[in-house]
Amino acid sequence: MKKFLRHIGFNNTKVWKLLKIFVADVYLFKTLRQIKSKQNENGKLKILVINHFFDGEIKELLSHINGDDFSLKYIYPEPAFSRAFVWFPQEIHNGQIPYNSEEVKAIRLRFNLFCEKLFWKLRENYKFDCIVTPSDIFFWLREFIVVAEKHGVFTIVADKEGTISPYDYLNEPSRIKAYYPPIAKYFFVWSARQKTFWINSGVGKKAIKVIGSIRTDSFINLPTFTSKKSVLYFDFDVDAYINNFDWNFLNWYGERTWVDLRDSFHRVIYKLALKYPDLIFNIKCHPQQIVSCFPEKLTHLKNVKIIKGAPKRIPFLIGQSVLVLGFQTTALLEASLANIPVIYGAWGKLFNSVKGSLLPWHESGFGFRWARSEDQLEFFALEYINKQVVSKKNRERINEYFYKSDGNVTNRFLKEIKKTITVSKID
User: Fold this and answer.
1) Cα–Cα distance between 418 and 69 in angstroms, integer?
2) pTM (global) more than 0.85
3) Could you report the per-residue pLDDT of 228-281, keeping only the tens digit for each?
4) Considering only CA atoms, which of 391, 409, 327, 397 is closest in space to residue 365?
5) Pairing outcome for strands 154-158 and 208-210
6) Given 3.40.50, 3.30.565, 3.40.1350, 2.30.30, which CATH number is that of 2-217+407-426?
């Protein structure tokens, strides 16, 4: 129904905009009631988290909060900031014009007034000391950050994009400075590599703390699964990881999608699922994946499951797997941390042409086995399923992206927040 309404242009009508705001306000009332509840509010230092695909991190944080030190509550982008999605033009949604451009100044001021009211509604129900968000470049959040800072509540970016490709590492800092200059007071990042990225993007050195990835605690501290009866494959969009490439700069004029590579993964999964009916083959789509259709013959198999959205149980899906397969996803690193065999599948003319601009998972040091063709992907998978080989142990490069994956990242994160809030209150 949503696709149909978009297709006929209903989402651009005044009626749709009014309905969206009305529905958002109804759900916002529910959000305020939840924020007001007594659950998780006994701590002296109160954190408000913006939950934008941040479930795994929130789960880890909540599991480490006990006693009187911290309270943590969270809100979602919608309904809280739905007006931004209605008021701002598509050029802002799509990052085609700078957020601070004159042509949207009136909308910024209008949304700032709304955020002022929202800030006090939230704070009346939960007196948070700081805001934690995965990013401050979200157009729908920036005015809220500005308002909070004005009233003495600072924002920490808990950056979760710690595996930025070489292409984006080179090109995105200048774009960020021009379109969405950093406004959060502090940045907590995964690695020294990521710290350099944010310095290049305009963040001051003293504002950045290298903590590690909170999510890695889930993989380091996984229980031992004595019986493993599944294979996990991380699917991807046909233009994933390359949709912002400047093809002229890369001097590539051939195929610009991963259709063939993705189809190869699907064919291999289909063959394996037929061969091993007692194994469950989980296909995990990216939370923001657009193309999530699969061959009917694949989805009709009883032992094939398609998982969409951002489920909180990804660490357990990985831990219960005899094998993990995928392409450019961070999840392959996380599976490697959990000592699960990982096959990285990448080949073809497009890959060979742009691999220097992609994450270097084809290189050694990450614990992966690199399949260079569809036949090799199937062969490697059969070896692992039949336990004819063991997973690779050479993982010395994982810390380039994860700093210390020692199962103690969440504790470091909370210690830094405590120190930061305490200093802020003294100032």
Assistant:
1) 8
2) yes
3) 899 999 999 999 999 999 999 899 999 999 999 999 999 999 999 999 999 999
4) 397
5) unpaired
6) 3.40.50
